[in-house]
Amino acid sequence: MKGPLEGKLYHGAALYPELWDADVLAEDIALMKQAGINVVRMGEFIWSRLEPEENRIDVRFLADIIQTLHENGIDTIMCTPTATPPIWLSHGHPERLFVNEKGETLGHGSRQHACTNNAYFRGRSAIIIERLAQELGGLPGLIGWQLDNEFKAHVAECMCAACLQLWHSWLEQRYGTIEQLNEAWGTHIWSEYYNRFDQIPQPGATPFLHHASLQTMYRLFSMEKLAEFAEEQIAVIRRHSALPITHNNSIAFHVDIERLFRQLDFGAYDTYASSANWPAYLINCDLWRNVKRGKPFWVMETSASYSGSLESYATPHPAGYVRVEAVAAYALGAGGFCYWPWRQQRAGSEQPHGSVVSAWGKKTIGYANVVQVEQARRELEEILLATSPMQAQLAMTYSDRAKAYLRTEPLRKLNHRGLVTDFYARLVALGIHRDLITEGSELGGYKLLLTPFVPFLSPDYLDRAIAFVREGGIWIVGPLTGGRTEHHTWHTDAALGKLEKLAGVETTFVYPIDGTDAIGQAFGLHAPLGMWSSVFEPLGGNDIAGASASDSDHRATAIGCVHSGLTPGAAFITERRIGQGKLVMLGSMPQGDDGDTLLRRMLLHYADEAGVTLRFEATEGTIVAPRQGDGYVIWVIINMDGAGGHVTLPQEGIDALSGAAVPAGPLTVGRYEYRVVRF
User: Fold this and answer.
1) Residue 162's closest CA among 112, 121, 211, 134?
2) What pLDDT digit, counting tens, does each position of 502-544 carry?
């Protein structure tokens, strides 16, 4: 028996019935049916309508709306309304409000103004969620739940008094004794030694920078407590509803996606990446497909045309682009593709935001895009429901914990999301099918693993990665990986700790290589080197942990060396065979066009060596999403950059849409066109 989110591809939009009367709702439903909308999401900002005064709660009108939508063939995802607590919760109660790093209490009037760790806020949240789950949970047409909306989109770590107490308890639970914390953090630096846990401050305003351990641990604490808040909501809903639950998130927000989604049922995200930055759109598909592996993810929000607020607006998407956004999402594993909002906000701070229908009820420039998406959905639905996304043979690790480390230590304005997206774009350009995975993901089925920009590697991750290598995988580590402990301090046994010993190298220097005229040479190419870097000396077999004098497999080899600059002759790329596989160290980041060429050469070299065959010969800007059927494979070929292109088919196939034979060799796709070929 299929679950409530299976059996169709969903095409939806965000609806705000609290803002409009019944006549407008009827008009919207009629237009939705014309456009092919089969699901709406609603309720994330509706708390004041449901509970205008404390304890005066009425959710019956939502039941009526869900029934009306259902009668018109439109399903509903119901949100919990905790993103916008009403004025009665905020007014006169600053202790319930969010406090930023400057010590400023943020007032009522936008969203996310309450501290999600405040006990009163959590208690009232549980009450309103329980009423929603009790009265709506069994209604026909309700197919799922969304917690809140965009956790930590506008705020980061709260510094209120309630968070301070929880922080002290969290530290005591983590470290056990104050002596162990002092030792782990190295608190004798600048007389930051603590005698009791309740003396440890939050990382608020100070004359200079806070201690790295304090900052990073507070970020991890905040992420953990937010996940606990989500789990409280999940528990309340599940007392009354068996429907699947998600949260609408983004890699831009201050959360730990892996931890947050531990008890959620399917992945969902929003993105407003521009058409010019289409790899920043695709990276979400390749990540969220793996957040809850084996279950379709949802694009819960994107724009039908352009995004905007009172302060800014984006360039509208070119004609045809939204259609291929949707096709790419569905082909890469999405079960739903939704717009924000359906009807333009007539009031508030996002009035300029693009929509499907205007505030005065007319079709916008985005409406034609929605119609195109619906045509593609109908054309592809049967094909995609009969197949599933193929697991890639190459995986790259995405880490929100690494994001926290690099927020503490951004050096020259580095951030994990930007670094990973830039690295990811090279894989897309090379035509290599790829999975983005979280730190705790299983590694079975992969042949090549990339771990760039992860300052701390946990013992568990190291053990699993080395097991992957021993079984025949190739693991490329770095740059900026492994140089910090779990407490955000330097290793003291070796620059990269245990990783260095496993790699069979000695890190001779760690330094900012930018501006030192360092040139790296590898794979017959050369390029300037940049970024905070490690350079190495390969060790002989007798010097490597676990190696025997006769075991030549344990010797490390320099693959790329530094020429000129401060460390000529040092290695910046090394490799060492371990078991049946290989550990490759990338200690410095090649720069500029020459650097991009060198990195691509390196990735192709190790993809070849690892036996990565799930890759495609395609012009840049055109991608392939491979899917597995029962005894057959399909390629969904999509031009994403609007320039058109071609893909080389390795054998004759069948056009899955027309049934015509498609010969082997180059297949041309036009501007924002898609093709589906069955082999």
Assistant:
1) 121
2) 999 999 999 999 999 999 999 999 999 999 999 999 997 544 4
Catalytic residue among 44, 51, 150, 439: 150
Provide the number of structural domains found in the chain: 3
Residue 667 and residue 598 share a domain: no
- The CATH number of residue 446's host domain is 3.40.50.880
Q: Is-catalytic flag, 301?
A: yes
Residues of the chain with pLDDT under 50: 1, 542-552
Binding residues: 111, 115, 149, 158, 160, 163
HSE of 82 in the Cβ direction (CA atoms, 13 Å)? 32
Residue 2 lies in a domain: no
Q: Is 442 noted as a catalytic residue in this protein?
A: no
Tokens of 265: 């049922």
What tokens appear for 665 in the block? 């060799």
From 301, 409, 439, 575, active-site residue: 301
Annotation: binding site for substrate: 111, 149
Best CA proximity match to 604, nearest among 433, 392, 430: 430
> What b/e string do you get for 621-630 counting C-beta neighbours within 10 Å, with b at 16 or more?
bbbbbbbeee
- Write the burial class of residue 407 (CB in 10 Å: 0-12 exposed, 13-18 middle, 19+ buried): middle
Give the alpha-carbon dihedral of 528, 532, 537, 543, to 10 degrees. -160
Q: How many whole angstroms separate alpha carbon 515 and alpha carbon 484?
A: 24
For residue 657, give its domain range.
622-678
**Is residue 229 domain-shared with residue 303, that is, in the same domain?**
yes
Binding-site positions for Zn(2+) read: 115, 158, 160, 163
Q: What are phi and psi of 264, to 5 degrees?
A: -85, 160
Distance CA 108, CA 89 (A): 9
Q: Which two tokens stand for residue 307?
A: 């995004």
**Tokens read off for 108:** 């009522």
**pLDDT at residue 553 in the model:** 57
Instruction: Indicate whether 582 and 635 sit together in one domain.
Output: no
